[in-house]
Design goal:
The structure holds two protein chains of two kinds.
Chain A (H helix, E strand, L loop, with lengths): L2 E8 L2 E8 L6 E6 L4 E7 L7 E7 L3 E7 L36 E3 L5 E3 L4 E7 L7 E6 L2 E5 L7 E2 L19 E7 L7 E6 L2 E5 L7 E2 L21 E6 L7 E5 L3 E4 L7 E2 L12 E3 L7 E3 L17 E4 L7 E3 L17 E3 L7 E4 L5 E4 L7 E4 L5 E9 L1
Chain B lengths: L1 E4 L2 H7 L4 E4 L7 H11 L19 E5 L2 E2 L11 H4 L5 E5 L5
Parallel strand pairs in B: 1-5
Antiparallel strand pairs in B: 1-2, 3-4, 3-5
């Protein structure tokens, strides 16, 4: 019998929620790394027992954790050994050093500001390589490890794609989305707030902005500029990797050519602001968003927590409300806090800043909370286990 | 041997109890005790001071013998009572927040 393992990162630790394929009875494990901000946990598609976690703190900085037994035990990827002599800094699993001349990016006040590493927002294990994993960091850059997280090297070509014009959004200048092409290892697509979407077709050596069609009026001086757009999240179905979906600061967008051109698919939503966007595991034209009231409130319109589903790839949306609070709900759902399993029917999961993690075991038709009182949820990922 | 008291989260990260003991090369300075600590507990690298610059992280403080050594240069000698093991070198997470 299949099962699911939900990896939840919160402001005060990580939690692992497990269930069988019915997804009705849940076991909760945690908090792991209690008191730390757990920005993201993600399992390897090559080996489900291998899970990476980004552990961070304003006091003690960044730590990378890895489990090779499905989250039962954890270790820093290089921390288990005790060297006989002092290894110079640079060998540590939590060292993210920008390559070459660090350079500057645009700051909130319009001046140029040096790149400074702050934290890892997102970890994306390779689809095929056992020990390869990517990290999206703040200040925005992409790092790659080929030794299971023990050491990291930046792919500096990304910041060469007009990096001096990138600027931090309200949440920081973070690289939060990493989409790996299912059959072409040379193609990687990433998204950065507030810089936009970028793509490499040579394995990460060179990158180009892929933001044509995006319009960011009142957000950047040139609303159709190459870079500077506040992309909140990208999603892709592996069966159709040229079709990309985007939740932008404002606007829900779609591209049918791997990001070369985008068009708006947000008609019919109560607001086209939001953070996460996801694709159904078995229906590549079925997508999910959580509309949020903005610019400053960042809670659901009218206090009603509604997931919106389009079964036509956009522009026709239905509100999914069964089991979700429809009054006095003022939580947010952050960009990395939604995920799907690959069971049939497909399970949809999301976590809120109020500490709830909801599950729908019927593709969104109805919802139940798995847990209600966790710390604010930063990220949700799901592993479907055989 | 010099006793080092770690904050709660770093104890968990290093997998140790309240205090650890490290052997520090002479002359015993703030930098020397941090070097020795990171050799013994590699998981602590980058959590107390920056990897590259070796600057103390902003919300980490150093205390010994009732004195705040946080702003002292890394080459500052440790107090005699710390060197003899009578008093610990304390690494503290600064109070911050609201």
């Amino acid at each position: 019998m299949s099962s699911v393992r939900v990896l939840v990162g919160t402001k005060k630790g990580a939690f692992i929620l497990t269930s069988d394929e019915q997804r009705e009875q849940w076991e909760v494990s945690g908090p792991h790394f209690a008191g730390w901000e757990m920005y993201h946990l993600k399992g390897s598609p090559v080996d489900a027992n291998r899970i990476y976690a980004s552990q961070t703190s304003s006091w003690f900085g960044q730590v990378i954790q890895r489990s090779d037994d499905g989250g039962k035990t954890w270790a820093t990827p290089d921390g288990a050994k005790i060297p006989e002599a002092f290894d110079p800094p640079g060998s540590a699993s939590n060292r993210f050093a920008y390559e070459g001349e660090v350079g500057t990016h645009q700051f909130y006040d319009g001046t140029q500001h040096p790149w400074e590493f702050k934290r890892v927002w997102h970890l994306e294990p390779s689809l095929t390589e056992w020990d390869t994993v990517y990290a999206g960091v703040e200040d925005a850059a992409l790092f790659k490890s080929t030794d299971a997280g023990a050491t990291w090297r930046e792919l500096p070509g990304l910041r060469a794609a007009k990096g001096a014009l990138w600027q931090p959004g309200a949440g920081g200048m973070c690289l939060h989305t990493i989409l790996l092409h299912p059959s072409n290892p040379e193609r990687i697509t990433v998204a950065i707030s507030a810089a936009g979407a970028f793509r490499t077709d040579d394995g990460g050596t060179t990158w180009k902005p892929i933001n044509r069609g995006l319009k960011s009026a009142y957000e950047i001086p040139d609303p159709t500029a190459d870079v500077g757009h506040c992309v909140h999240r990208l999603a892709m179905h592996p069966s159709r990797p040229d079709v990309l979906f985007m939740q932008k600061h404002w606007d829900v967008m779609r591209s049918d050519n791997a990001g070369d051109m985008w068009y708006d698919i947000g008609d019919g939503l109560p607001t086209d602001f939001g953070f996460p966007i996801e694709v159904h595991a078995h229906e590549p034209e079925t997508i999910y968003v959580v509309p949020i009231k903005s610019d400053s409130e960042h809670f659901p319109p009218d206090g009603k927590l509604r997931v919106y589903r389009s079964r036509t790839g956009g522009n026709e949306w239905e509100a999914l409300t069964s089991g979700l609070p429809q009054e006095n709900c003022f939580v947010n759902v952050l960009r990395d806090a939604m995920a799907v399993d690959s069971l049939d029917p497909c399970g949809i999961y999301f976590g809120t800043t109020g500490g709830q993690v909801y599950c729908s075991a019927d593709s969104g038709d109805s919802w139940k909370p798995i847990v209600r009182d966790l710390p604010a949820v930063l990220s949700v990922e799901v592993q479907t286990l055989p | 041997m010099i006793r080092v008291v770690l904050p709660h989260h770093l104890r968990n990260l290093a997998g140790v109890g309240d205090a650890v003991q490290v052997e520090v090369e002479s002359p015993p300075t703030i930098r020397a005790v941090l070097d020795a600590l990171e050799v013994r507990y590699p998981a602590l690298r980058g959590t107390i001071r920056d990897h590259g610059t070796l600057k103390r992280r902003p919300f980490v403080r150093f205390f010994a013998c009732q004195e705040d050594l946080s702003h002292q240069p890394p080459e500052t000698p440790l107090p005699g009572a710390v060197v003899t093991g009578a008093e610990p070198f304390m690494i503290v997470g600064a109070m911050a927040g609201g």
